[in-house]
Write the structure tokens for this entry.
Amino acid sequence: MFHRIHTSRAPLFSVFLSIVFFGCSVGPDYIPPDPSLPSGYAQPELGEDLNLARYWELLGDPVLDGLIERGGGSNLSLQEAVFRLKESFSLYGARNSDFFPELGLVSTIQKRRRSEGVASAISSPNNDFVSVGGALSWEIDIFGRLRRLRESAQASAEASLEDFRGTLVSLQAEIALSYIRYRTFQAEIDLTNENIRSQKESFELAKGRFTAGIAPELDLRQAESNLNETQAALPALRRSIAVEKNRLAVLLGLFPQEVEPLLNAVQAIPPFPKVESTTLPLDVLRQRPDIRRAEREFAAQHALIGAVEAEWYPIVSLPGTISFEALNNLENAFRGSSLAYTVGPSVTLNLLDFGRRRHTVEAQEYRTSQFESRYRQTVLEAVQEVENALATFREEKIRTKYLRQSVEASRRSTELVKSLYVSGLTDFQNVLDSERTLFSQQISLAESSGDVFQAFVSLYRALGGGWQKQENPMDTNTETGVAGQDTPDYRDRKPS
């Protein structure tokens, strides 16, 4: 026996709202991937107490600090990334609006005149028609199509946030690397000028001994050749320093002539900070923006599977119109008797599509697998980049140490051989060889010292250093930001 169940309108309305806002979502729920990582790095270096957010401050160079600070507010690539981020959050906001009804204004004013053949057959051949009202359109998300689309849009917006952070990390590292190369070229120019002065003294010495008839002309010409060869190194160095200054200008969003005052006078590369060599936590890699972006892109694509699967199920919508209509007598258009409306649910269900939806779902699944593979590849490449940076950083420091000892030995050797030459105990060729060796080793030491700093920057860049967890241009009022949008840390978010 069937029993009629009596329900009031309020519970029915509550059930309706529950279906609208808490209906099921078809498709697989997203579970963040957890790639298998090794127990540690093959190249242990640095320490667990890493100042990743502002690592360049460890170098103790106020000029570098100022350049990076300025670049964060004026670099055009970073500003472009901010606008991409705003675009993504706007698209996410548009997806949020899909859950609410859409109401539009519809009005019609028509003056009708029938043809004479039709007018003779009807009683009202000519009339005026006015209709003013609104149209309602509302898709009720019972099976989660809109929820999956919103989930995908949110993940895409968060991927754009990581894209911004990745651009910021790269910008800060590029400014630091360019600045270090600039200072390295300055050091090489100073060393070259120092050797030119020393070789001029040797040239004058050989010239004086030749004039006095106690040394052959060969000594004079060799000294002259050695001096000119060293002087020829200056134009290439000046060209390199100009190129690096121009590169800094682009990174700072400035013209070359505007960068010169920011670099101050010539200054030496500061002593490298002492860093303890202990175990580096591998989990630091999870902070890298490219890994976080790849994970969010994977999540965004994963949600599209459910959005496509939902098309297999009925699409329920609630269309409706309400208007005031009048014929001929327009003065009565807005009276109660002129009110007209249509309202009622609409259900659309596809019964036969010859496999189109099935193949579309399969395509989305294969595309999702591509994004998962891309994510795992990003993790592997990140580990490789850090390993390479650790090895370069460690070995270059060792190389610098030996080069410094070699330079000291060569400098002493040059002093001794000049003294022996003046005493007539050795020939001038030994003086020339000693000077060439000293100059070559001094340049190698300057380059290696710069390479150590560059390896340091590259290591912190590989670790994802250069941004803070709460740093989001959508949260603050800055030159490149806008207030109001809150994006929590999604790495710990559980699947819904």
